[in-house]
Amino acid sequence: MKTTSFVHQLTARAALPRLSVGMAESVNIGFLGPLSGRVESWGLPGLNGCRIWEDGLNKAGGVLIGGRRYPIRIHSYDCGYDPERALEGAVELVQKHNVKLMLMLGGDTFAPVRDFLMRNKVLTSTLLPTDLSPDTPYLIAPSEAHPIQNVTGVAWLAENRPELKTVALCSQADLLGLPAQAVYRAAFKAADKQILQEVQYDPGSSDPAPVVDPMLESGADILCWCSSYAPMVHAMTEYAYAKGFRGQIISCTMDGYDRLVERTSVDFMEGVVFQFPDFDDPMLSEKAFFFNRPHKFFEEYSRRFPGSWSAVSWEYVAILDIWHSAVEKAGSVAPPSVLAAMKQLGHVTHAFGHAEWWGEDIFGISNALVGDWPVVTIREGKARIAEFKSIPAWLAEHSGLLKSEMETLGQLWHQRLESDAPGSEVSSRAVDG
């Protein structure tokens, strides 16, 4: 057996370039989200996007920390949007893989892991700022300001379709749906629209009739699906079409809208308003973020994961970009240092431009990034950005109304902590291909 002296090993290591990737060492990131089941479209496509980012960064040499580059490794755990599985996953990712960043959807799956992750000082991201509280100092919402960004779609609709006066809205009764209902309430009231009907439904429900029928019977000009999950959005949209509704539809997301166009009609889907663009949109062509420009990311995603693009395909990647910049600025992956580096900037350029840290009035801590957000409409069967509108500008005028509606539905941070309700489990049901 051939042996090598310790001195020889040191000499060999010293001869390596300082910026080379650290051989067996890697910086580990956890992805704890719904990779299957009813909420899959808000988890799995996000992991797909992260794989593109991971591969690109590692091909470029990895993350630079203290003059040396380290490869990134993303470890995933499918919690299926189940609170108990989320806790199991969090423990495994932290204890087995020592992850330095935990990517999460949030909501019902964050509540059971909150104390464990904060006690272990794990820098954790959520797509739902309503998870934030003074008790979550290591929780950040730097990508999506859900559901706050939905005010932009309502404001745009009010400006461009002033003849629409009344609305009926619905939401699933869980920690993702209820805050969205509160935000849409506030947004429609701020736009001076009359809410004729509100329906809350079980998040495990798959029958659109009990939800949509009372909304149609109200005679409202606008049907709002709030932040319903993709399968229910499809079911309700098709049901409304079959029932003869030809008015305005607005929704947080419209994942797989091309299938809805096929199953209804181009005319029926014309003008539907939602909040998440395709990244081949012409209005994103001049923006530079992620590892590549948006349209290049969209092309690569579509090539590697055809037919799976959703609202979150890019959102976790946006978080990774911000984290990567903060790590290299701090020269460390230690959560306190990385978080400090993020905050020292005062503002951050997120996916759609300048953004600022916000949230203390509503969440008790300013760990959410808010800025401009796109309003998307369907035109001749294709999603297109109609306009970018400012979330901070809306909040400056209507934050009191928003806080009031959040309080009414028990969604302020102290109310959620006092109730300590994990929310309802979501059963598995995929959108048919």
UniProtKB/TrEMBL annotation:
<dbReference type="InterPro" id="IPR028082">
    <property type="entry name" value="Peripla_BP_I"/>
</dbReference>
<comment type="similarity">
    <text>Belongs to the leucine-binding protein family.</text>
</comment>
<keyword id="KW-0813">Transport</keyword>
<keyword id="KW-0732">Signal</keyword>
<dbReference type="InterPro" id="IPR028081">
    <property type="entry name" value="Leu-bd"/>
</dbReference>
<keyword id="KW-0029">Amino-acid transport</keyword>
<feature type="domain" description="Leucine-binding protein">
    <location>
        <begin position="27"/>
        <end position="370"/>
    </location>
</feature>
<protein>
    <submittedName>
        <fullName>ABC transporter substrate-binding protein</fullName>
    </submittedName>
</protein>
<dbReference type="Pfam" id="PF13458">
    <property type="entry name" value="Peripla_BP_6"/>
</dbReference>
<dbReference type="InterPro" id="IPR051010">
    <property type="entry name" value="BCAA_transport"/>
</dbReference>
